[in-house]
Amino acid sequence: MGMNKVWSEYVQGIMTLYLSRKLRFDDAFFGQYGNVFQLDPEAKLKILEIGCGPGALAEALHGWYPNAEITAIDRDSGFISFAQKNIPGVTFIEGDATSLPFAEHSFDVTISNTVQEHVEPTAFWGEQKRVLKPGGVCLCLSARRGLHCQAPCTEMTKEEKEFWEGIPQTESELEKYGVCRYPMTEAELPASMEENGFMDVTTGYAVIDLTPDARKYPPQMAELMIEAKRQNDLEAIKSSHHEYDAKVLDAINAKYDERLRLYHEGIKQWDTSVSLTMIVRGRKG
Ligand SMILES: C[S@@+](CC[C@H](N)C(=O)[O-])C[C@H]1O[C@@H](n2cnc3c(N)ncnc32)[C@H](O)[C@@H]1O
Questions:
Q1: Nearest of 42, 19, 280, 43 to residue 142 by alpha carbon
Q2: CA 211: distance to chain centroid?
Q3: Cα angle for residues 5, 7, 13 (degrees, 5° grid)
Q4: Strands 107-113 vs 91-94: parallel, antiparallel or unpaired
Q5: Residue 267 — φ and ψ, nearest 5°?
Q6: Which of the four pLDDT bands, split at 50, 70 and 90, describes residue 177?
Q7: Maximum distance among all alpha carbons in the chain?
Q8: Which domains does the chain have, with CATH numbers?
Q9: Under a CB-based contact definition with an 8 Å cutoff, are residues 98 and 119 in contact?
Q10: Which of 108, 143, 152, 166 could potentially form a cystine with 45 if both were Cys, beta carbons 3.0 to 4.6 Å apart?
Q11: CA-to-CA distance for 261 and 215, rounded, in angstroms?
């Protein structure tokens, strides 16, 4: 087994991805996904998730489609060992989306979330087509632009500002790892699926509204929204692989401790993070 931890150590940390996706794939939003997926919730489907990261989507699918047999693959060993340890009921495998370690006609469904833009399209679609059974369904989820509005208490602290201003631009580093090498617009994505041989292609959108103060969300969910942001900010510092002072982490923790306190005291902030996920569905002929 290889030891590829580039993504989990340099690009996005384990908790950043796991918690943000745990929210994005909360049961509260299943109706929106399920409408476009059009999968029989009772069927014994064989589902393959490509580029599963730390596994939050696979975990959600396991709950939504209890009779399905779910396999999930990612090339990052840090994500795969986290998922194997923490998510029961799903088979997690380390491997590459451009040469899937499965025979042709193995799966009823392939699915991925925010992976297409990182993988060469001919291989991305071609490999899914190869492992799908005839008539199998390919689902490609893609995060589009969101709306974000912060609470004053969680704005970037001077400690964080100093840290980020003190390190060189990281954009070229991300390029080095092939991050977002194949971006597609909302029009290009379904067209690319069709060009690569999928039929009956259709699109839909899920709107994921994360507003801790909204009454529809129970406290546990609101707390998770705040914790997800805390982990995002903490792991961003660590993933930069530049030296940092513990004071930066303390400052981040203090912001989110304060946000939690305000939440529990009922002092509303109405900070919100709304994300839009495009869902493209196609069928192998
Ligand atoms: C933006 S992350 C999304 C992870 C996960 N789907 C989620 O939503 O949390 C992109 C993922 O694709 C994986 N990835 C990128 N290229 C890959 C490839 N060629 N084969 C397998 N996984 C790949 C990365 O390791 C990373 O986990």
A1: 280
A2: 19
A3: 100
A4: unpaired
A5: -90, 100
A6: confident
A7: 57
A8: 6-284 (3.40.50.150)
A9: yes
A10: 108
A11: 17
**In this structure, which residue's CA is closest to atom 13 in ligand 1?**
51
- Per DSSP (E only), the strands in the chain are 46-50, 69-74, 91-94, 107-113, 132-149, 198-210, 272-284
Tell me, in angstroms, the distance from the centre of ligand 1 to residue 164's CA.
25
pLDDT in tens, 27-58: 999 999 999 999 999 999 999 999 999 999 99
Q: What DSSP letter does each residue of 129-156 carry, written as one string? A: HHHEEEEEEEEEEEEEEEEEE--GGGSP
Mutate to test the pocket of ligand 1, among 8, 74, 174, 231 (most ligand atoms within 8 A of CB): 74
Q: Give, rounded to a whole angstrom, the gap between the first and last alpha carbons of the chain.
A: 35
CB atoms within 10 A of CB 234: 18
User: What three-state secondary structure class fits 81?
Assistant: helix
3-state secondary structure of 175: helix
Q: How far is the CA of 274 from the centre of ligand 1 (A)?
A: 22
Q: Which atom of ligand 1 is nearest to the CA of 98?
A: 19
Pocket of ligand 1 (CB under 6 A): 7, 17, 21, 51-53, 56-57, 74-76, 79, 96-98, 113-115, 118-119
> CA 113 to CA 140: how far, in whole Å?
6
The neighbouring-strand residues paired with 276 are 144, 207
pLDDT digits (tens, 9 = 90+) for 59-78: 999 999 999 999 999 999 99
How many other CB atoms are there within 10 angstroms of residue 107's CB atom?
Answer: 23
Residue 256 CB neighbours (<10 A): 20
